[in-house]
Design goal:
Layout: E1 8-12, H1 21-33, E2 38-41, H2 52-59, E3 67-73, H3 79-92, E4 98-102, H4 107-113, H5 121-140, E5 147-150, E6 155-157, E7 167-168, E8 173-174, E9 189-193, H6 198-206, E10 209-212, H7 217-233, E11 242-250, E12 273-276, H8 279-291, E13 297-302, H9 305-322, H10 335-339, H11 347-351
Parallel strand pairs: 1-2, 1-13, 2-3, 3-4, 4-9, 9-10, 10-11, 11-12, 11-13
Antiparallel strand pairs: 5-6, 7-8
Helix pairs in contact: 1-2, 1-9, 2-3, 3-5, 5-6, 6-7, 8-9
Length: 355
């Protein structure tokens, strides 16, 4: 990767649960002002709080350019419902949606649903990969011009351009088609934390954006090279994946009090990497790792979103922009355009499909 490869930046806007939509909207707008590619909103069945996908659907009409990526748990859920919800977010945001695929591993979470006992992590990630596969097929089950909306004839859709996906796998059997027309991006952006283990296989096979956890640029580059090789083995173009180093950041100082619930420090997901320092040093780190070819960019999780995101945007990002290392405006209208990813062709239209 050359030094001229565009730098991509994203940020998490979650923290202790908040029930004021204005809180999340303000953070998303702040990230948008810094021209970040997207914001994520973490979620799980293991803690109380509002549903991340619903929150970002509320944020969507209050923003214009920033990508919106909620965490969506594929365990205890059905891909038909998941794909419909993510497609809806893509529609209401006019093509700025993604989803961060995750699994639910504990017995306590399983008991919330009462449908089945917890399964081994390997099995859960196989199921997650299958859910991602089904979702992509359902998004393709409507061709782009399937909607007619001809009032005179009373025809809403050309049924010849709707397709049964007829999927049968280890965990799901889904006939389709979807009930939501094909999203503006064709397929919303799929994000997977693919540092290692069974999640890495799902990332190589299905992700558009891979989050990488590494303490050195050499390690990040090695993970990137390994996953690019796996993607190629699956018949994918490895150049179509974007790799972002996942970093939890603390830009506070002795006079700053963390938000309630974080006094004892952040829970680092997956043993993730942690940075504590100033915005200028963070900009130096990002620039050095990116120039060295370690990754395509960074996904930053502020330990205190209301404080640290402002310092990221007005400090770190401003400095990177001043140095010509990061853009000053969004290059397009969709998340795929921000990331330099093409809009996927519809597999059923290309193959003739099956009505």
């Amino acid at each position: 990767m050359s030094a001229t490869t565009p730098l991509h930046l994203a940020a998490e806007i979650g923290g202790p649960p908040r029930y004021d939509p204005g809180h999340y909207t303000a953070l998303a707008r702040l990230a948008e002002r810094g021209a970040l590619d997207f914001v994520t909103l973490g979620d799980s069945f293991a803690r109380p709080g509002p549903d991340a996908l619903a929150v970002l659907s509320r944020v969507a009409p209050a923003t214009d350019r920033i990508g919106l990526v909620p965490t969506v748990t594929t365990t205890h859920t059905e891909p038909f419902h998941v794909s419909s919800a993510v497609a809806t977010l893509d529609w209401v945001s006019r093509g700025r949606a993604g989803w961060n695929v995750d699994v639910s591993t504990t017995g306590a979470e399983a008991r919330l649903f009462g449908r089945r006992p917890p399964a081994p992590v390997e099995e859960l990630w196989r199921e997650a990969g299958e859910s991602a596969d089904v979702s992509a097929r359902l998004w393709d089950s409507w061709e782009d011009d399937a909607e007619i909306r001809d009032v005179a004839t009373g025809r809403f859709v050309d049924r010849g351009r709707l397709h049964h996906i007829d999927f049968e796998g280890e965990f799901f059997a889904v006939r389709g088609p979807a009930i939501v027309p094909r999203p503006p991006q064709g397929r919303p952006v799929t994000v997977v934390d693919g540092t290692g283990g069974p999640a890495a296989r799902v990332a190589a096979r299905h992700a558009d954006v891979v989050l990488v956890r590494a303490t050195t640029p050499e390690r990040a580059a090695a993970i990137r090279a390994e996953l690019r090789g796996r993607a190629a083995a699956y018949g994918r173009d490895p150049g179509a994946l974007r790799f972002l180093v996942a970093l939890t950041v603390d830009l506070g100082d002795a006079e700053t009090v963390p938000e309630p619930g974080l006094e004892s420090g952040p829970p680092l997901a997956g043993g993730g990497t942690y940075y504590r320092g100033g915005p200028v040093d963070l900009a130096e780190l990002i620039g050095r790792w990116h120039r060295g070819g370690a990754a395509d960019g960074f996904h930053l999780t502020p330990i205190t979103p209301g404080r640290d995101l402002e310092r990221i945007v007005n400090g770190t990002v401003s400095l990177l922009q001043h140095r010509g290392l990061f853009r000053t405006f969004h290059p397009g209208g969709t998340l795929r355009e921000h990331l330099g990813l093409t809009r996927p062709a519809n597999r059923y239209a290309a193959e003739g499909g099956r009505a």
